[in-house]
Amino acid sequence: MFHGVPAKLICKKHLGGIWYEISKLLGALRKGKKITGHEVDHQIIRWSIYARMMDVYEESKERGYKYKLPSSEAEIAELTGYAQHSLSEDNMPAEIGAYNAMKLAMRCPQCAEKILAHYQDIAGRCKLLQEIELEAMVERGEL
Ligand SMILES: [Zn+2]
Fold it and tell me: Is 49 within 8 Å of 26 (Cβ atoms)?
């Protein structure tokens, strides 16, 4: 599911793949099955399904794709346990997202284009913040 990688950084093909995967996971939950075969613990997977599904769904609307939610937002929240715990990918450390983004960028040139632009932007902003901080230190006479 490329946990922690925002849907907006994912190409059409991989977004479709994620949508298929989460829809299957949700279907399994609906039948009361345990989600297996995933590297992450069952509970974490369950909780992250809701956020992942909504993130991908919102992005698909933005891009004009015709994805349809398999059931109501409230039912998905209930099935995944999100309603009870409000745990989501927001709780996932940023490093996991960055690591998964880099793995995806190495596999797919279409994703790489969006991912590299995004992280370059972050790096650019970090550099800018550093420069501002350095200037402030000079002004304060600390350098
Ligand atoms: Zn891709």
Answer: yes
**Mean pLDDT per 10-residue section of the chain, whose length is 143 residues:** 87 95 89 68 69 92 95 89 63 73 90 89 77 85 83
pTM: 0.74
CB-based contacts of 38: which residues, under 8 Å, 6+ apart?
45
Q: How far is the CA of 3 from the centre of ligand 1 (A)?
A: 14
Query: Which residues neighbour ligand 1 (ion) by CB within 5 Å?
Result: 11, 14, 108, 110-111
The answer to the question of residue 100 being in a domain is yes
Question: Is the distance from CB of 69 to CB of 80 less than 8 angstroms?
Answer: no
How many domains does the chain fold into? 1
Q: What residues make up the domain containing 75?
A: 7-139
CA of 58 from ligand 1 middle (Å) equals 18
